[in-house]
């Protein structure tokens, strides 16, 4: 009788969840849904041996997440109650479309999604809610001749809808802008670019949780960049460290405006991240873009350990129940003095020849909550300046900044990644940067 009562308490009992894709977040979604009693299904074109999410799910299908008709059939035949995906924009949009087709709950509408994900619409949303943002010089498909005289350099040109830093360029004069803006247009699905003020300073990302229509700041980081190629190129975050060294200033000066923005969307439940720049000389913040989802670093993975919270659960709750009981008052963005982060080995171009010491070193460091390797031996790494260069990522939760520096040094010294010519093929984060530079 007691076992029956415990089982009956599971909130997703007799519910079925379809998860699209095997990207970051998918395994965590499946684990939580199963733990709370749901029947779980994962669908994408990866075989189970390449998908941890599929291996732990109750069922899986070898179906592309672009094949909506095949997914429709799964939903109908399996009596699916909710559809969700991890952090993948593509898969989340497919989940949104399928939820709409079958009248299933989804945490946001297409209009809410676009108002945040579109850089142009988000900029308007910032102005309405007094969120500080860079000046916008132009938004459109082609730059008319009359617009060129109004630009102030340096400036940034980027697609209004692309992710992973693709098509983003810093331009110091009209010659550089003319050389790059068409490439930005080509990276945009809408063939639309935004040209904005370049703001000097240090980049950060802040995640917000929304539950019951109210919002709270969950965490805020500092971004530590490296450049894969020489020249004026988009940099890659070799580390994201939490809490930000200017977290208290952000909470004092900006947080209330962003909370207002989150709640103005009219969502009951959800996750929103904003990205911005802090100028240390003026102590000013500028928010330049956002997403209505969890960002790629997926900080809930260490928040589970240090705060006992997991904001990804909000989306699962809403998908299966149409609401969430997530307690936003438990958010603790200052982490009680602890230091957490996502530290990465950034790949140069090449074929991965060998990876040595990875598993042994991770096992020796209990503060490494989890890790992921995107490019196994034999894989070809990209030759670019986008987030696709992130190869091995370590999710860490340490007692202090000093402790994190010690453990990053151990990772760097004991793990080697070589190409097929036995040359070092990753850029590693220098732990000294935790104390003296971004």
Mean pLDDT across all amino acids: 94
Radius of gyration: 22 Å
User: How many H/I helices?
Assistant: 15
For the biggest sheet, the summary is: 6 strands, antiparallel
Structural class, from secondary structure content?
alpha+beta
Distance between the termini: 58 Å
State the total count of DSSP E strands. Answer: 21
Low-pLDDT parts are none
Amount of beta strand: 25-35%
Instruction: Report helical residue fraction.
Output: 25-40%
Based on CA inertia axes, which overall geometry fits? Answer: globular
What report would you give on this structure?
The chain has about 450 residues and is an alpha+beta fold. The protein is built from 15 helices and 21 strands. The strands form 5 sheets. Strands 11, 12, 15, 17, 19 and 21 form a 6-stranded antiparallel β-sheet that branches. Helix 3 (about 50-55) links the parallel strand 2 (about 40-45) and strand 3. The protein is globular. The N and C termini lie far apart (about 60 Å). The model has no long low-confidence stretch (mean pLDDT about 95).
């Amino acid at each position: 009788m007691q076992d029956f009562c415990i089982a009956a308490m599971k909130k997703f009992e007799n519910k079925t969840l379809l998860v699209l894709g095997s990207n970051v977040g998918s395994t965590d979604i499946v684990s939580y849904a199963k733990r709370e009693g749901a029947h779980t299904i994962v669908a994408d074109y990866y075989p189970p041996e390449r998908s941890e999410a599929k291996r732990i799910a109750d069922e899986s299908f070898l179906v592309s997440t672009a094949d909506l008709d095949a997914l429709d059939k799964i939903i109908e035949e399996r009596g699916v109650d909710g559809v969700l995906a991890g952090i993948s924009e593509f898969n989340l949009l497919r989940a949104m479309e399928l939820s709409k087709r079958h009248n299933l709950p989804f945490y946001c509408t297409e209009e809410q999604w676009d108002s945040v994900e579109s850089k142009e619409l988000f900029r308007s949303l910032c102005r309405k809610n007094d969120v500080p943002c860079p000046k916008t010089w132009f938004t459109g498909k082609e730059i008319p001749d009359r617009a060129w005289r109004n630009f102030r350099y340096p400036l940034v040109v980027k697609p209004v809808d692309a992710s992973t830093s693709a098509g983003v360029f810093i331009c110091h004069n009209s010659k550089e802008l003319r050389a790059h803006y068409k490439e930005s247009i080509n990276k945009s699905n809408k063939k639309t670019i935004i040209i904005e003020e370049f703001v000097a300073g240090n980049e950060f990302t802040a995640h917000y949780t929304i539950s019951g229509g109210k919002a709270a700041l969950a965490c805020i980081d500092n971004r530590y960049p490296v450049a894969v190629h020489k020249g004026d190129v988009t940099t890659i975050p070799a580390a994201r460290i939490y809490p930000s060294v200017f977290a208290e200033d952000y909470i004092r000066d900006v947080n209330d405006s962003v909370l207002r923005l989150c709640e103005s969307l009219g969502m009951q439940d959800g996750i929103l991240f904003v990205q911005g720049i802090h100028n240390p000389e003026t102590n000013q913040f500028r928010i330049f873009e956002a997403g209505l989802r969890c960002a790629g670093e997926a900080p809930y993975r260490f928040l589970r350990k240090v705060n006992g919270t997991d904001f990804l659960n909000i989306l699962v709750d809403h998908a299966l129940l149409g609401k969430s009981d997530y307690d936003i008052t438990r958010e603790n963005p200052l982490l009680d003095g602890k230091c957490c982060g996502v530290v990465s080995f950034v790949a140069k171009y090449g074929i991965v020849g060998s990876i040595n010491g990875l598993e042994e070193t991770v096992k020796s460091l209990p503060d490494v909550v989890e890790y992921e390797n995107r490019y196994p031996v034999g894989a070809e790494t990209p030759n670019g300046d986008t987030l696709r260069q992130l190869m091995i990522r370590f999710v860490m939760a340490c007692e202090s900044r000093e402790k994190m520096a010690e453990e990053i040094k151990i990772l760097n010294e004991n793990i080697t990644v070589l190409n097929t010519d036995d040359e070092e093929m990753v850029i590693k984060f220098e732990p000294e940067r935790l104390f003296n530079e971004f």
